[in-house]
UniProtKB/TrEMBL annotation:
The gene is argC. It is an enzyme of class 1 (oxidoreductase). Its EC number is 1.2.1.38. Catalyzes the NADPH-dependent reduction of N-acetyl-5-glutamyl phosphate to yield N-acetyl-L-glutamate 5-semialdehyde. PANTHER family: N-ACETYL-GAMMA-GLUTAMYL-PHOSPHATE REDUCTASE, CHLOROPLASTIC-RELATED, N-ACETYL-GAMMA-GLUTAMYL-PHOSPHATE REDUCTASE, CHLOROPLASTIC-RELATED-RELATED. This is N-acetyl-gamma-glutamyl-phosphate reductase. The active site is at 149. It catalyses: N-acetyl-L-glutamate 5-semialdehyde + phosphate + NADP(+) = N-acetyl-L-glutamyl 5-phosphate + NADPH + H(+). GO terms for molecular function: N-acetyl-gamma-glutamyl-phosphate reductase activity; NAD binding; NADP+ binding. InterPro entries: AGPR, AGPR_AS, AGPR_dimerisation_dom, AGPR_type-1, NAD(P)-bd_dom_sf, Semialdehyde_DH_NAD-bd. It is found in: Cytoplasm. It comes from Methylomonas koyamae. The keyword Coiled coil does not apply. SUPFAM superfamilies: Glyceraldehyde-3-phosphate dehydrogenase-like, C-terminal domain, NAD(P)-binding Rossmann-fold domains.
């Protein structure tokens, strides 16, 4: 059994990790931390876990985590980088769901996240945890930087086109919508359903902190810098990411449907929909799947890719468990074989 700890067990990604891990056949959740709720029972805060988790929240301290095989950080940015080095020194593997180790240039990270990086020496070691791109590296890793939700949907949508060199990489556009849970479990007026409900808006048009992460990933695949316009939107739903991606084709006549189907044929958690389909967030809700539909409107030189995920599962906690499975030599889909909720 893999002994797992979760730092930050009271947020949406933390409880989503618990939902998945308590049913994982080869994992024992041994520690869940919360500074504010230390000493309280986990199932008191989350009654949905009654009968599945009888732990009490522990303080987020090394002495409670050192007996784990792996520790997940479901914490705000700036927390994992303070504890990762000490855990790694004890032989504990680390999977960080925040952005602390995603961006390879420390100065770029500090620019976008507004703080000094506490562990720049670990950035190069951290493996970017997108299994569809880095599966073999993940298997050997001891520190994983789990991708963000927007970057997951966008990169999976653009990946086949960039690998095949089929599009102009200077004019990529990502028009992406997120449910309110993407803002995290905190008291913030803009993410209250009474504020977000019956409304729809773009935000961070001048620059979102996921932009450098997405560009870094796409540039690696393309072999050069990419020009990307990324505009996020807030939609009045709880879960889901819908990415509508645009690119200019270098030439017409290529079978885009076949390209995507071939690229993801062996990828358990990427589902390329039949030609003419329209991806819908409700069809991935609660699952670790990314569903993709590819279009070439009017047979022209623009390709439109629709990519949908559940931001809390494939966009965060499910993908983190997928990484853990690979790191420990388990079946990649272990604990993740869940059909999406419908309706």
């Amino acid at each position: 059994m893999v002994r797992a700890g979760i730092v930050g067990g009271t947020g949406y990604t933390g409880v989503e990790l618990l939902r998945i891990l308590v049913l994982h056949p080869q994992v024992e959740v041994s520690v869940v931390t919360s500074r504010a709720d230390a000493g309280s029972r986990v199932d008191q805060l989350y009654p949905s876990l009654r009968g599945y988790c009888d732990l009490q929240f522990s303080p987020p301290e090394l002495k409670y985590l050192q007996g784990c095989d792996v520790v997940f950080f479901a914490t705000p940015n700036g927390t994992a980088m303070l504890m990762a080095e000490a855990l790694l020194a004890l032989g504990v593997k680390v999977i960080d769901l925040s952005a602390d180790f995603r961006i390879k240039d420390p100065a770029e990270w500090e620019k976008w996240y507004g703080m000094q990086h506490a562990s720049p020496g670990l950035i190069d070691e951290a493996v970017y945890g997108l299994p569809e791109l880095n599966r073999e590296l993940i298997k050997q890793a001891r520190l994983i930087a789990c991708p963000g939700c927007y970057p997951t949907a966008v990169q999976l949508g653009f990946l086949p086109l960039l690998e095949a060199g089929m599009v102009d990489t200077n004019g990529l556009v990502a028009d992406v919508k997120s449910g309110v849970s993407g803002a995290g479990r905190k008291a913030e007026i803009a993410s209250l359903m009474s504020e977000a409900g019956e409304s729809f808006k773009a935000y961070a048009v001048a620059g979102h902190r996921h932009l450098p992460e997405i560009k870094q990933g796409l540039a690696r695949v393309a072999g050069d810098e990419v020009g990307l316009t990324f505009v996020p939107h807030l939609t009045p739903m709880i879960r889901g990411i819908h990415a509508t991606l645009y690119a200019r084709l270098n030439s017409r006549g290529k079978d885009l449907q076949a390209l995507f189907e071939q690229r993801y044929r062996e990828q358990r958690f990427v589902d390329v929909l039949p030609a003419g389909s329209h991806a819908d967030t409700r069809n991935v809700r609660g699952s670790n799947r990314c569903q993709i539909a590819v279009h070439q409107p009017q047979g022209g030189d623009t390709v439109v890719v629709l990519s949908v995920i559940d931001n809390l599962v494939k966009g965060a906690s499910g993908q983190a468990v997928q990484n853990m499975n690979l790191m420990f030599g388990l079946a990649e889909a272990a604990g993740l074989e869940t059909v999406a909720l419908y309706p």
